[in-house]
Amino acid sequence: MSNIVCLGQFVIPIRSPTSETLPDQPQQAFLQQGTARVHVWCAPRQMVGDLSQVQSNFLGPMLGPVGSCSTPITKEGINSSEQSLIKIRAFVITKICKDPQLRGCIFGLASNKDSISSAFSKAQITLSPIWNYDPSLFFNIPQMSVTPTLTSTPEEDDSSRSVLRNCVTTLKDHQYTALKFLKRNESTERNTIEDLWNHPMNSWIRRSSNPSDLRLEETDQFTSRGSILADDMGLGKTLTSLALVLATSNSAKHFQTSGFGNHLLQSSATLIICPLATLSNWENEIKIHFSRGALTYCVFHGRDRGRIDRERLLSSLIVLTTYEMVGTSGNPLHTNQITIESLDICWFRIVLDEAHMIRNPNANRTLNIQKLKSKFVLCLTRTPFQNRLTDVQSLILLLKIWPWNKEWIWKKHLIPGMNVGSQEAITTLNLLMETVCLRRTKDVLLNLPSKVEKVVVTLNIWRGVGFDRIFPTAHHDTAVL
C-alpha cells in the first residue's frame, strides 16, 4: 500500500438527475463508464444522473472500458493489472443542495498522480486537500497534495542560492519548495490575494455582501502578508523559517529605514515567538545550520531582557522570545516590566511557532499578539484545524489580508456555509487555504516505509517457566494440528 496515495476530495454537481426521490441521508455511490457519459449510481442499483459531457470525456477513460464501474479503496489496494486508474469513495448528497451532488475522495498509484490530477483539471473538477484527513480510516494511505509545483525564474533561483551560501546545511527539495512558497507570499509583485478575492468561485460572497462590508478602511491591505506553514513534524519547518530570514535579509535591512511603520521604530528583525520549551531549540538551529554571524540574533526573555540595547533589537535579523513575553501575560505580579508590546517596534516579520496556541480568538494571548505590528507574518503549526473553523480563522486574521481578516466574512458566509456543507463555502475555504497555507506529510515527501513497532514483553517468573516448557515442542504440536 506504500505506493498508493489519496489525492484529495471533490464535489461534483450531478447533471440530468433522475426524477426518482432520493433519501435525505448521504447514499454510497459509484460511477459507471457509459457509451456517451459517465453515470452516477447509488448502491445497490439506483440511477441518480450523469456527469457533464466535459467531465465524462476526461474521467470516463480513467474508469476503464464501457460498462466499467468505480470501486472503493480496500485493504487489497490497487492491482497494477486493473484497467481503472482510480479508486473512489463517494456519496450522493441531496439534503443541503438544490441539485444532487457527488462528494468523495480519490485514491490512485503515486506514479499516476500527474495524469489523474491533469484529468480532473481538464474536467474542471477541483481536487482539494482534506484538512482533517485521517490515514488510519483508509488503511494508512497517506494524502498527497496535487497543488501545482511552484516554479521560479533562473534569476530568482540564482539570487536565493547566492544568499543561502551562509546556510551550511543543504536544504532538501521539499524545504526549498517551501522557501519559494513563503517568498512568493511575501512578494509585492504578484497580488495573489486580490486574484483570490476576484476568483469566479468567490462571486457568491461578493454578490451577497453588504456594500459597507466591502469598503476598504485605511488599515486594510489588499496584498499578501505571509503564510501558514503546516508541514508534518520532522520536515524542518524551523530550518525553512530560518532560511527565509536569511534569504530576505537584504529586504529586512531596507525595511528598517523605510516608512512602513509610520510613527513606530522599524526593525529589520524577524520576531520569533515560541513556547519556552522550544526556545533553546531555535538557538541551536541557528548555530548548527548557519555560518557564524550570518543570522544575528538576541534573546528577549528572562530578567536580563531589559538590558538589551534598543539598537540591537532594531538591527538584528532575529529576536527570539516566548509567548509569555507578549502583553502582560508573562508578568502577572510585575506589570511594569518590559514586554514585547511595550517596545513599540514594527517588526519586519513575526513568526509564530506552534501557532495553534492562539486558536482561541478571545484569549488574552491571541488579542495581545494581534496588536503587534509587522510587515509580514508566518504561522508554523502542524494543526491549522483542530476542533472548529475558528481555529484557522484566528491565523487568517493575524495575516491581516482583506477581506479575509474581517469578522463578517466568517460569521455571515464561511462558518454558516461550512456548517451546512455548502459547496460554495467549501470551495472558497479550499481556495483560501491553498493560497496562504502549505501542508505536506512526511510519509509522502520522504517516501518512508511502513511503520513497524516492536514491543518486548517481559514474562514474570511463573510464565517464563511455562514458556520454557512449551516452546521446545510447540513447532511439532502445531504441525500435527
UniProtKB/TrEMBL annotation:
Name the GO terms of the biological process aspect.
DNA repair
Q: Which InterPro entries match?
A: Helicase_ATP-bd, P-loop_NTPase, SNF2-like_sf, SNF2_N, SNF2_RAD54_helicase_TF
| Single GO molecular function | hydrolase activity
Going by the UniProt record, its keywords in alphabetical order are: ATP-binding, Hydrolase, Nucleotide-binding
GO CC, sorted alphabetically, is: nucleus
- Signal sequence annotation: none
Give the superkingdom in one word. Eukaryota
A Pfam family the protein falls into: SNF2-rel_dom
* Ranges for domain Helicase ATP-binding: 218-402
Q: Which SMART domains match?
A: DEXDc
PROSITE patterns noted in UniProt: HELICASE_ATP_BIND_1
Q: What is this protein called?
A: Helicase ATP-binding domain-containing protein
